Amino acid sequence: MKLIQKDGIDILIKNTKNTPRMAVCLYFSIDLPEKFAGVYTLFSKLLLKGTKTRSAELLADIIESNGIETSVKCKQDYLKVSTLFLNEDFDLALDVLADILQNSTFEAFEKEVYKLKGEIISDLDSPQIKASDAFIEGIYDGHYYGNSCSKTLQDLDKIQKQDVIDVLAQIMKAKKVISIAGDFADEDKIAEFFTKNFSFMKTYETNSQIPDIFDFQGKNGKDKIVKIAKNDAKQAQIFKGCLVGSQFSEDYPKIVVMNNILGSSGLSSRLFVELRDKQGLAYTVRSALEPLRHSTLFYFYIGTEPKNIQKSLEGFKVEAKKLMDAPPSNIELLGAKENIMGRLEYFSQTNAQIASIAGYDYIIGLGLNYEERYRKMIADVSKEDVSNMAAKYLQNPSMISVLAPEEYLNF
Hints:
The protein is an alpha+beta fold.
């Protein structure tokens, strides 16, 4: 990926010859906690609901009739507005993209608030999502990252249309980047196009007001447990996790390999083999890693019969202890690295994936062409590194969220 900086605009360009569609991603840094939980989500939903020159219906018709894929994604640290289009539709697709960011009216505000409420209520009917929601709220208690679905539901009626309009003003004064991948003849002409037509993408170096959070203290130095009674639940939903080294730390690639060995590699992972195959505890079991700019979350998850709650929690502890006490074998380490590299390769094939990954790395602060450095860091992880990460992080106090019928919550 090549970086062109012109007239205050940062442009990432990847020329992929002989591809029929181009991808453009506009990334905006989010540096302030939400005024109310759900403001950023609501903002992202309203961007495609009409502009001063195009109604929501006209926008949808233009996008659909020309096969243009346009989407808005809002996460805790960034807003991404992206479009994927045939090469010949370059001018039209980018005119639409500029229009929604410069001229959105947010007129569907009340309708979208109502729809978002319904979506959240529907989501929280899922036992797994309800348990996950409580887990996130608990481990990030008091932090912006803990703005859960439940908190959003509580805050939605406090949000005014002006709060959403203010989000647009806020991100326009933040760090930004344009990331494009496709087949084009002249990179300089592409850069000229953006400086002429996307002047609103001028980037600003701002200091994030979202605090770093690297430690979870638990309750009096012990695990913090949230129990959710749902008497009609057929399965117990269990989440257990802690905060680990950030993406910017030297620990991160080692943690990625640890996570793969424990539970993110599917059928070959230790959790799957031990808790599902050998002990028959799980319908679903895994571990996962969720990196954010100011924190990284590692957690175990299992869906199991309610009678197996204590046994499942003990199973997590046992598998973590095994990895602390003895490094993985050479074969297991190699398999984990191959799995990670294979996924990286699979998810960096299309122009949409290339533009998205490069833009994300840049806006988060990982730098240009981070994926190349990341691959080398993964390759350099040793068996001892994996064991050391388990010892360093998995003995810390955990956040535990359990949803089950009330009679099974006495543990």
